[in-house]
Amino acid sequence: MIENNSLSQIPVSVLDLATVAAGDTFSDAFRKSLALAQHAEGLGYNRYWFAEHHNMESVASAATSVLIGYIAGGTKTIRVGSGGVMLPNHAPLIIAEQFGTLDALYPGRIDLGIGRAPGTDGITSMALRRNLNAPIDQFPQDVIEVLNYLGPHDPTAKVRAIPGEGSHVPVWLLGSSTYSAQLAAALGLPFGFASHFAPTYLVDALQIYRERFQPSQFLKEPYALACVNVIAADTDAEAQKLATSFYMMALGLIRNQRRPLQPPVDNMEDLWSIPEQAAVQQMMRYSFIGDAASVENELQSFVQTTGVDELMVASHIYDLGAKKRSMELVAEMCGVGNVVAH
């Protein structure tokens, strides 16, 4: 744990899934993501990341690098990246070329967050046709391959990422268990934990990452980010109602009944059983919902307890205006824009 870490002293960033709300088209989702990224930039957020998912009706960020280019092209200063690209779905060279291209277009603003999960179900993984029978040690090799492609020009290399080589796009390892924490520590890379949907191993992963971290050409000291869910509003009652959209989305994941993000409802009592409610609450343990004062207190406790170096916020809110307001409240409580980013 990092001593004396406080909410106002660390950068705060945004995770977006290009969420498709009920009644919206994919084009609507992308336009809303751009509006939110521009709003985040104006408020002083550090990064705006998209996560690769497939075969999910509420998530339009499947072609992650394409979407990153669209958002980076519509903003000026905020870092834009992947949170993350699921490397087992892709050849390392392709990812290096894509992110090398993005870096050439938007120098110094692109992040490459890499994950090990497929970001989808088993059948869709087969449709993606990449590394289905790869050996267990393939992922670390693929990560190192990406790092080499993005590194300095190697005159002896027979395969080069063009664009890509020499770009030194920052590479992050992302995970929901201790596996990526160990690999990030061994390679000396920054690490991000997906505590917004997989809270169980957060503390263990952070401890392993810090204890085993090896300084590298990429990073001299460990740097850890954690993603959490936040729904802030002017009143607690409003925030709790907004959160019902989020609960319905999580309930759909549990039931394997996925659909676009639904408008909020007055209560959830008739929509879930007691066991389902418990399962949703367990999955979403690191969710901070309420008015500004209550959310600030809870986030401050989270930051002090975990000692994270950066906080990333995911907000599954149906209404664009309410989502912008939540971002504004978080910016105010976190001192966003006043922190020198990593």
Automatic annotation (TrEMBL):
Location of the Luciferase-like domain: 14-309
CDD domains according to UniProt: Flavin_utilizing_monoxygenases
Position of the signal peptide: none
Pfam families: Bac_luciferase (PF00296)
Recorded GO MF terms: oxidoreductase activity, acting on paired donors, with incorporation or reduction of molecular oxygen
Example of a GO cellular component annotation carried by this entry: cytosol
Gene3D superfamilies cross-referenced by the UniProt entry: Luciferase-like domain
Family per similarity comment: To bacterial alkanal monooxygenase alpha and beta chains.
Name the record gives this protein: Luciferase-like monooxygenase
Naturally occurring in which organism (per UniProt): Cnuella takakiae
